[in-house]
Write a structure and sequence with these properties.
With 458 residues, the chain is an alpha/beta fold. It has helices at residues 2-7, 20-35, 46-51, 79-104, 119-126, 139-149, 177-180, 186-194, 215-222, 236-239, 258-266, 286-299, 319-322, 335-340, 353-361, 375-385, 402-414, 416-436, 441-457; strands spanning 10-15, 38-45, 53-54, 60-64, 110-113, 130-135, 204-207, 227-229, 251-252, 273-277, 302-306, 327-330, 344-349, 366-368, 389-391. The strands form three sheets. A seven-stranded parallel beta sheet has the order 4-2-1-5-6-7-8. Helix 4 (79-104) packs parallel to helix 5, helix 12 (286-299) runs parallel beside helix 17 and helix 17 (402-414) packs across helix 18 (416-436). It is globular and about 60 Å long. The structure holds uridine-5'-diphosphate (UDP). Uridine-5'-diphosphate binds next to helix 2, helix 14 and helix 15.
Length: 458
């Protein structure tokens, strides 16, 4: 035990909510902590661990139970039932895990947790440990939910222009879907508003963004609790392509088709490929998938499209064969490697926060096709605030038609607006890298977090 103590400055248990978009930033943040001499045990649920593809990583991995070990949320009667049982069973099994880990090696000093599971803070406090919450959505989106939590933003929305401190004027459609479509997913809505239920008691509030990207809203929220921006949670060396052994996440819910993708990309000239991915959850209507497929075809560009197995049947018949000269369709890819590849010139994205931050950090101009949750807010920022992409317009049915998709892709790849967007993309790439590089805003914040943690032990 003492031996391990001497090697590490402290020991953090990092608890991720069981979804790809939550596990990735936790995993990457864990790597940053280890880089700074902190031992990390990353905790995921048994159910998701059973189905994940695990690649070699230095981070120790442990599991707790969400009460649905066989199938996770898919096994639950409802989202509400899942979250309720996860809290009950998760709290208990987290207690058991902390006891086990502490008695078998290095005692745990701090629990870093996702605000989707605020009960983890109560468990940490039971043991007298530090508790640090890591918000995995943008600060702008956190700010919106915070104002709902405080009762300042009244729902259902009645105004056509929403004015919140630290944010530009937002239209109803720019708000997260659980807000503009109030009542659509009450359990998720409650979870997102519930993120703030005990945040005042957390010892540290971390956000996966970087200061330069969201300065105004970070400054605003900093007045409520001291915030530490620690993103993008992509190792700086990776942005630089220097750290050869750290090219991937380490944990993927689907098996990435790495060799096929990289070989294919290697055969394409700089900036010539449109990369298309809608993340791990998006469940488009068949009509929408068909329109995207046609839009890609009509753009006449080479494309790499991630179509998850569950979505494959939504593609137009013979699409894969008929477009094989121009396109590659895979079930999952190593997204960081793909975005870092110089052949990629445009990212058609659903605007999940990780994808948004990754695209921005690698300086890849985006075509925004948001689906739900925070994606419409991220899309608004991509187009109007950070000016590094175009939001694809939708028709009266809410569908991005083929002509719109084609137009946005062409505009980014070769249009006048594309030139300006590319300029901005270089700027954001540079700022993101500076933020995570040694001495940058995010790096300093992580260092400060570790120092506070270590000081609390003496
Ligand atoms: N991702 C990946 N391979 C893919 C598609 C996505 O590794 O083929 C990763 C991506 O890099 C990101 C995460 O999956 O980190 C998706 O998170 P995001 O917040 O963008 O969307 P979500 O899946 O939560 O909707």
């Amino acid at each position: 035990m003492d031996k391990e103590r001497n090697v590490y400055r402290a020991h953090c248990l990092v608890l991720a909510y069981p979804a790809q978009g939550h596990i990735n930033p936790m995993m990457q943040f864990s790597k940053r902590l280890e880089h700074k001499g902190v031992k990390v045990t990353l905790v995921i649920t048994k159910s998701i661990s059973n189905t994940m593809h695990k690649e070699a990583t230095s981070i120790a991995l442990e599991t707790i139970s969400d009460g649905y070990d066989e199938g996770g949320i898919a096994q639950a009667e409802s989202i509400h039932a899942y979250l309720e049982r996860f809290q009950r069973v998760g709290s208990q099994t987290l207690v058991e895990l902390i006891e086990k880990v502490s008695s078998s090696g290095c005692p745990v000093d701090c629990v870093v947790y996702d605000p989707f599971v605020p009960w983890a803070l109560d468990v940490a406090k039971k043991f007298g440990l530090l508790g640090a919450v890591l918000f995995t959505q943008s600060c702008a989106v956190d700010n919106i939910y915070y104002h709902v939590h405080k009762g300042v933003l009244k729902l259902p929305l009645s105004e056509t222009e929403i004015l919140l401190p630290g944010s530009p004027p937002l239209g109803p459609q720019d708000m997260p879907s659980f807000i503009y479509d109030f009542g659509s997913y009450p359990a998720y809505f409650d979870t997102l508003v519930g993120q703030f239920s005990n945040v005042d008691k957390a010892d540290c509030v971390l956000v996966n963004t970087f200061y330069e990207l969201e300065q105004e809203v970070v400054d605003r929220m900093n007045k409520i609790w001291p915030l530490k921006t620690i993103g993008p949670t992509i190792p700086s060396m990776f942005l630089d392509k220097r750290l050869e052994d750290d090219k991937d996440y380490g944990l993927s819910i689907f098996k990435p088709d790495t060799d096929t993708c990289m070989k294919w990309l290697n055969g394409h000239p700089k900036g010539s490929v449109v990369y298309v991915s809608f993340g791990s959850f998006v469940d488009f209507e068949v009509e929408q998938m068909e329109e995207i497929a046609w839009g890609l075809r009509m753009s006449n560009r080479c494309f790499l499209w991630v179509v998850r197995e569950s979505e494959e049947e939504k593609l137009p018949k013979h699409f894969v064969e008929e477009t094989s000269q121009k396109g590659l369709v895979v079930r999952w890819c190593p997204q960081l490697k793909v975005l870092a590849h110089e052949a990629v010139g445009c990212f058609v994205t659903h605007c999940g926060w990780n994808s948004t931050l990754e695209g921005l950090s690698f300086g890849v101009p985006m075509v925004a096709v948001p689906y739900w949750s925070d994606q419409s807010t991220n899309a608004k920022y991509i187009m109007d605030v950070w000016k590094m992409g175009l939001k694809a317009p939708v028709d009266e049915k809410g569908i991005v038609r083929r002509e719109a998709a084609e137009h946005c892709i062409k505009e980014i790849m070769e249009g006048e607006r594309g030139k300006e967007i590319k300029k901005n993309s270089f700027k954001w790439r540079k700022l993101a890298k500076e933020a995570v590089d040694e001495g940058g805003s995010s790096d300093k914040n992580i260092e400060e977090f570790v120092t506070t943690l270590v000081d609390s032990l003496s």
